[in-house]
Amino acid sequence: MPRPYDEPTVSGWYLTSGADLPLTPQGGETSCECLVIGAGWMGLHAARRYAELRPDASVVLVDAGRIGNNASGRCMGFAIDLAHNPRKQDFVEDIQGNREELEVNLDGNAYLRSAVEEHGVDCDWDPQGKYHSAATEHGVAALVSFSHALDKMGQRYSWVEKDEIQALTGSKHYIRALHHPGTILLQPAKYLKNAARALPKNVTVHENTAIIGAQYGNPLHVFQTPTGVIKAKKVIICAAGYLTEFGFYPNSAIPLYTFASMTRELTPSELAKVGTKGAYGLIPANSFGTTVRRTTDNRLLLRNVYSYANDFKTTLEDVEAAKTQQQLAFDRRWPELSPMGFAASWGGLLTLAQNGGMVFGQLAENVYGAAFCNGTGVSRGTSFGKSVAELAAGRSSPIIEILKRRVPPSRAYPKLITATGVRFVTGWRFKQAGKEV
Predict the structure, then answer these.
(1) CA nearest neighbour of 257 among 347, 345, 327
(2) Considering the entire predicted model, what is its pTM?
(3) Which domains does the chain have, with CATH numbers?
(4) DSSP code per residue over 17-54
(5) Which of 3, 80, 381, 391 has the fewest CB atoms within 10 Å distance of its CB?
(6) Which residues of 81-95 are buried (b: 16+ CB within 10 A; e: fewer)?
(7) Cβ distance 78 to 188 under 8 Å?
């Protein structure tokens, strides 16, 4: 069973997300109809949807840490309708797969939007789309490849030439970009915390509540916490790679950490040097390049570096090493501003499978699960969570049928081989990205 794990640093998103949720760890004996484990994009929306469908049912949502400072709250805050992978030829060739992916992500984005519009969830919601930015001719070639895939799918986009992207960002680092509408920018920690506040009345939330033991049974499943026990008729496990420690898909998770750093709030004179656009989000042409956000509250946020996460954990030394690379990226893009450094640096867990497989559906009697986003976690994770709750409540939908067809995760190679392979590939790809970093 997973044990409580404290990240070595607090995410900048969490530090700037407003008041904390009231902290109520679980204690004693709790009984419920449905227990949801994990309060990230999947789990929070699974709890919300199950409670909507079963308003008389008691739903308990637990998270081993604090909502918003968990892995989901540490992402870049892109709710992406259509992911991109210019390196992979089948992105162009697998049109049906990409259309299904688009349908799933649009379903997730619609559910996110309903939280904002119907329940007043404050999260700096900004549906402006994203810029795929290139700093090298190699990067431009990758964008051209991506544009061919968009053409085949009938997707709208527009090219942003050198003068325009440099004016938009205030950076002479970029030479061309492609703007693709549909992506929503948001503040992930703020969304998760405020969406937790807006959950239906029949949901009880317990943070800092790790599940340290599980006994599956009929009619009740029994779960141990550090200070009590939870008995549930149904359970929905949305614990990312930790799902493997609940007895399902053992030895299949490939845990990675990716890292980010955020500046303090920029002054008016400094803002004049980071472009005319206001808030924006830049996706690197090379997936191992640097992702950039200019936030609504006028900070710069840079993400790069991937590393294998032994036992799903990272260290302060890992965060500091990544921060060095983010400082280099800052120097390249805004040399006049980069001496200010960063106010916060952190890592976030991302779980992959050897075959790109994902977990979705019924795992055992009255046990359901969703895990292994393989990236694009905001939109995809929201749809997965909403849909697995619908499945647990006896519903069906076109999205559920799509997700049922997803290939499940395969068993990974032995840990030593996987760790060595991941370190080699990520190091080589990072070096190959060159100035896109």
Answers:
(1) 347
(2) 0.94
(3) 12-436 (3.50.50.60)
(4) S-SPPPP----EEEEEEEEEE--SHHHHHHHHHHHHH-
(5) 3
(6) bbbbbbeeeebbeee
(7) no
